[in-house]
Amino acid sequence: MDSITTYNLIVILSVLFVSLLFLLIPLNVLSTLTAPFSFKTFGIRKVKRWYSRTDTLANFFLWISVIFAFGFPFIPQGVQMARIIFAVWMIFAWLCTISRAVRLSQVKRSDIKLTVIFMINIVFGYGLVGGLGLFDHGGLWVRSFMLIDDLKKPETWNLLYLLRSPNFTCYLLQVAIVAFSTCNLWGQFKYMRLENTYKGHFLATYIIKSVLVSLVLLGFGLYGLPFMEGIYRVEETERLTQKGVASPVDFDAVNRSVDQLTNQLSENTHEENSDESNKEETEPVESAENTEESTETENSGIQK
Known about the structure:
Elements: H1 6-22, H2 27-33, E1 44-47, E2 52-55, H3 56-71, H4 79-102, H5 110-131, H6 139-150, H7 161-164, H8 167-195, H9 203-231, H10 251-303
Antiparallel strand pairs: 1-2
Helix pairs in contact: 1-5, 3-8, 4-5, 4-8, 5-8, 5-9, 6-8, 6-10, 8-9
């Protein structure tokens, strides 16, 4: 497992610095800027049977997040479009959550509101950089799209595929990063709309929960890909860790790497099939030679 590089450390500290810098914006200015994303009471309806309320709009956003988390490899445009959609969706979720954090009617103290906003920024920042693959240079995204290419091959549906290839487990890790980051923000948005306070009985427990979510996102983003490639003992030439894929923002290079890796896998399978066919062709020739030798020995025995 690789240690934290200088680049990764700069990204981690940059998220902390920007989150702290964001707190310098006055709450009234922040309320004005995020007013279009608060949605006021739109989507909130009463459930007469249970004498409670539900947020249909937030539930709809949560379902979109879950569907995208599991279905992003099926986007036709590939890795580039999937990462762009994820970034736009995360920013939209962050703006909506911040708009509700500023308007918490049950929270009167501004320092508590600023603490809640800071923790939202932390979860958003680490979820964004981890989900975009800035730590592993898009390796989990590439492995996820390679899994979809592998599903087109019949040998993939064998149970041994799960023991040979890390693509499926890397896909699950990427699903976890996308789902944890987006659903956490939309869950807070829903709770704040219904309860008009932050999602926690005490501020300390809310901070601890946000820190744990951030650590999970950091852990998956930093060590998810190298850990899986280490477990599956992927050869050095086929690993996507560190700079094996592309620079963090070079989407075209990521798409090219997917094509190259899939071509290599197809060539390897073609070579294996050709070797097997050659073996099958040589075996009859050897058997024929053996039969000729046996017939010659028999004839010589008869003559004697």
